[in-house]
Amino acid sequence: MFILELSFGDEPDRLAARPAHRERLQALHQEGRLVMAGPFADDSGALLIFDVPDAEAFAAVVAEDPYYRTPGVTIVSQREWSPIVR
């Protein structure tokens, strides 16, 4: 599994890009590649948990979504995660 942490700014481009991003997340969830995702309560960023086989697949999922390159969206951290309870 892989975790992606985002930080959000106030740029209006981010809000304009969000609906398409959320549709993409729904598709990834239906495919079983996204476990959970959502913004922090204060909307300062978000956390996403992906269930993909390796770092290459994770990088591809991130690269496929233009939201992660949108002004106002910053990738804070991306790392492999080994949960012990599911």
Automatic annotation (TrEMBL):
<protein>
    <recommendedName>
        <fullName>YCII-related domain-containing protein</fullName>
    </recommendedName>
</protein>
<comment type="similarity">
    <text>Belongs to the YciI family.</text>
</comment>
<dbReference type="InterPro" id="IPR051807">
    <property type="entry name" value="Sec-metab_biosynth-assoc"/>
</dbReference>
<dbReference type="InterPro" id="IPR011008">
    <property type="entry name" value="Dimeric_a/b-barrel"/>
</dbReference>
<dbReference type="InterPro" id="IPR005545">
    <property type="entry name" value="YCII"/>
</dbReference>
<feature type="domain" description="YCII-related">
    <location>
        <begin position="12"/>
        <end position="81"/>
    </location>
</feature>
<dbReference type="Pfam" id="PF03795">
    <property type="entry name" value="YCII"/>
</dbReference>
